[in-house]
């Protein structure tokens, strides 16, 4: 009965609350809006719509990846034939093989890297617009300490990640590719060790980042959530200590604000999540397709190709994997933060 | 970040140059040992010397800016929620008084004023309209007992 009353009160007073406080998610970027439904149904239906729209645009990426794969198989075949011919210098063949594979793969890798950078920047920019709305709505519900802590943490980690990716990780990827090509051409233990160090640094830094971020968010949520719950309890005690009629009016108003802010925050959060997925999904799938087809190509080439050629193709596959991991980390950061802000005080 | 990028580029360039030189000289050359020593020293200097010059930037300003932005976002939420709650409390209190007045057969206009506390509470009221002295006294008593607004804070126009 109480729930029905609150629902009716919300229906009556929502126009009143809406005048004073409005929490709507920022508009999705034009590129992402193409993959989002025009009218929102349920969360799962909207998500499924985004997935279907993204998949329907994958055809050109698959065709391009297959074309590159066939070229690589042709190079590996040619190199293996040349190797069997007597009188051919192995060093020259190795050099030519490295240069050929490098030329075939460097341009698509560059295109996909730039796609990855653009997607990271778009997600970061959208996060900068969404997070203040969610934090503000959460503060309106009484979770002042938690919303400030979550907003600060997410902004800090998002900035560090965004700058780290564009200024450090991406150049590191280019350096890694240079070392891989040089190692394939020249074959040096030092370059091999450097290559493995660069790979280790990139992998470990992404892993460490996500662990630190998740740990910080968990601890912050518990500590500040306890403080906010105490503050809300204290406010309730003040209300209950007031004159009965006044206390009831204030209590009803407080409940209306909580429910209204909660409804608006949830709606903004759901739209924000769908938008983040719409920005992230198609580039992720485009790079993922290239990654899978390159992996398959390396497996096929390992049957007849030289070790150096196959290793170089595998190194480029590793780079695709790094870009996928980077995109995944940025998307995960935003989704975790949005869900934490939607969750509110426990 | 730019510093780290330049450092990495210099280390990688030095490593590639050293590898190429060693490959060109070959392991069986008479000068192999000396070349190895020279390239090793060159690479070591490239790796170690920038590390010695590291200084850490003072991040205090950045964190202060972050705190200010977080405070602004949170204040926005708190202020808008406070304003919305004040509006609801004001309207409900006015509706309560009007309801009581109507039960007594009075036709009045009511404006309630709230305190600046959290949560805001009604502190004074302005009532306009004609009323018999007894009805007016009754309404004043109800307002005083039910809403804790003392008679001196009730203005009749």
As a percent range, the share of strand residues of chain A is under 5%
Helix content of chain B: 55-70%
How much is the average pLDDT of chain A?
83
Rough shape of chain A?
A: elongated
Oligomeric nature of the chains: heterodimer
Intertermini distance of chain A: 24 Å
**What order do the SSEs of chain B take from the amino end to the carboxyl end, as H and E?**
HHHEEHE
**Mean pLDDT rating of chain B:** 83
Compute the gyration radius of chain A: what is it?
27 Å
Distance from first to last alpha carbon of chain B: 70 Å
Shape of chain B: rod-shaped
Helix content of chain A: over 70%
How many beta-strand elements of chain A? 0
Sheet with most strands of chain B? 3 strands, mixed
- What is the string of helix and strand elements of chain A? HHHHHHHHH
Strand count, sense and barrel status of the largest sheet of chain A are: none
Give descriptors for this structure:
heterodimer, A: 346 residues, mainly alpha, 89% helix, elongated, disordered N terminus, B: 157 residues, GMP Synthetase, Chain A, domain 3, 4 helices, rod-shaped
